[in-house]
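TL;DR need structure tokens for one chain.
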Amino acid sequence: MALRIGYLLPTRESIMEGRPEAEPLLGLAERAEALGYDSVWVGDSLLARPRHEPITLLAGVAGRTRRVALGTAVLLPALRNPVLLAHQVATLDQVSAGRVILGVGIATDVPNIRAEFRSAGVPFDKRVGTLMEGMRLCKALWSGKPVDWDGRWHVEQGVIGPTPFQPGGPPLWGGGSAPAALTRAGRFFDGWFPTGPDAKGWGEQWRQVQAIARDAGRDPGKLEAAVYLTLAVDDDSAKAAQRIDDFLSAYYGQRPDVLKKRQACFSGSAQAAVEWMAGYVREGARYLVLRFAGDHERHLDTFARLRSMLPA
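>> reply
TL;DR here they are.
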């Protein structure tokens, strides 16, 4: 399977910096496609980290592009009614002619995210069960057959229209690096999509996901091996390091040294960036989704040139 490179749109940063207009984001998506990126991604949050709503924005991206896949990195399905979510995703998949990838997760346990779940009326401590049941209900609705469901939600002979362009719905990638997240990815999802750790640690965990899939009677060769990477490239290594620290502090409101322990981050020269990314490829990663710490047009151009230097 060929290595693929994705690009995360700066939806969070544009809100933080007082630039809520969607047009520049759509322009970046078009630029990424023109430069040969394989996909465009958006994050998700309601109140904890305000940003553009991902399904709506990706519909706009779908209308401005023709080739790139459209992904969520990652969606928090537990915050949404799954019947509505199934309908929205099916429509987006039709609008984009089958280009949707749903990265899904449960969110980090920090105070502002707990508050976000309370605001949405979703018990934070039940978020894993809510996620898993919600996605099962989505997949049932995506089948196009009448659905009867009696659980957290009650559905009687429910049928959505349209069903997704991709038969059975878009692929689901599970985020997270905790043991339970590895189990969910290996047993239930179509891919694994964490934000870290380092390449060696990622490789060790990827092999665990594959073993879990094998033990569950699944073909591990059919699982997508992805990773979400944050980068700042500059020939001045000190400047690049400060850029990453400032970015993480502003984005999350937490200490960057703490965040770097659970997120894969790079700062340094372009050549060193290639060597760092290649470490994940050698460990088995086949999909790299890149988040840039600012200066997006320059970073997009730089990594479009560098991708040919990565292992095939």
